[in-house]
Amino acid sequence: MQVSIKTPEEIEKMRVAGRLAAEVLEMLDEHVKPGISTEELNSIAHDYIVNKQQAIPAPLNYKGFPKSICTSVNHVICHGIPTEKKILKDGDIINIDVTVIKDEYHGDTSKMWVVGKPKPGTERLIQITQECLYKGIELVKPGTRLGDIGHVIQQHAEKHRYSVVRDYCGHGIGKVFHEEPQVMHYGKPDTGMELQEGMTFTIEPMINQGKYQTKLMADGWTVVTKDHKLSAQWEHTILVTADGYEVLTKRSEESF
Ligand code: MF3
Ligand code: CO
Ligand code: CO
């Protein structure tokens, strides 16, 4: 399928869905503490999305995914499944990835937390990964090419001797959760598709402390680093505007 250009009516719905997804992450802030299980976080998020937001948690039953959010702890890169057994402890790092559907449109966003007292190096991995996302976002405007975005992310990660996960990428988003284009987090300048006003897509770099190779666990979902070193990820849903970008999943702590 071709890349879809959203109409003004669709963009307004994407704004609403994006805002709701961001609000779930803001709501979760006070709950991400040592002693809570990832299943409890899932159930708090699920109830909030379904009852308070009257929206749909997109991951639930998506291609068989069993829960409403993804919770990826330490060496889990993405798509971690919440469970009662996974209890957050001091020094863990966690990514929570929230996708909501409101009025048929998707908003997709994730952020990192350090649980309790940080271990050496973890805050830096998390910060550089967020800078990778922000550097990618800053390039978004009509005429920028996807390879430009991948390149700036890869340069920043590798400058700090981290590696960029190749096996998973960002994606177009709208009525469909994952649509074209694929948004790679590595690449060469002046290559790939040109951005156009009205496109909506995610940028969601996964950056590893060690090597970039991944391994899929036997549950068919959980993706881990092959070398079991730490991985971080941040994600936003972005709209290409006439002269730049709008971050549809912006949280209040962020200023774009
Ligand atoms: N939210 C993830 C993304 O950023 C996708 C999760 S799919 C699931 O694209 F099934 F694992 F939930
Ligand atoms: Co996504
Ligand atoms: Co996501």
Automatic annotation (TrEMBL):
Q: Matching InterPro entries, A to Z? A: Creatinase/aminopeptidase-like (IPR036005), Pept_M24 (IPR000994), Pept_M24_MAP (IPR001714), Pept_M24A_MAP1 (IPR002467)
Q: Kindly give the Pfam families that the UniProt entry links to this protein.
A: Peptidase_M24
According to its UniProt record, which cofactors does this protein need? Co(2+); Zn(2+); Mn(2+); Fe(2+)
Q: What is its EC number?
A: 3.4.11.18
GO CC terms, sorted:
cytosol
Positions with a binding annotation for a divalent metal cation 2: 108, 171, 204, 235
**Could you give the cofactor binding note from the entry?**
Binds 2 divalent metal cations per subunit. Has a high-affinity and a low affinity metal-binding site. The true nature of the physiological cofactor is under debate. The enzyme is active with cobalt, zinc, manganese or divalent iron ions. Most likely, methionine aminopeptidases function as mononuclear Fe(2+)-metalloproteases under physiological conditions, and the catalytically relevant metal-binding site has been assigned to the histidine-containing high-affinity site.
Annotated keywords: Aminopeptidase, Hydrolase, Metal-binding, Protease
Specify the signal sequence span.
Answer: none
User: Which amino acid positions bind substrate, per UniProt?
Assistant: 79, 178
* Complex and partners: Monomer.
Recorded family membership: Belongs to the peptidase M24A family. Methionine aminopeptidase type 1 subfamily.
Q: What is this protein called?
A: Methionine aminopeptidase
Q: Which organism is it from?
A: Marinobacter excellens LAMA 842
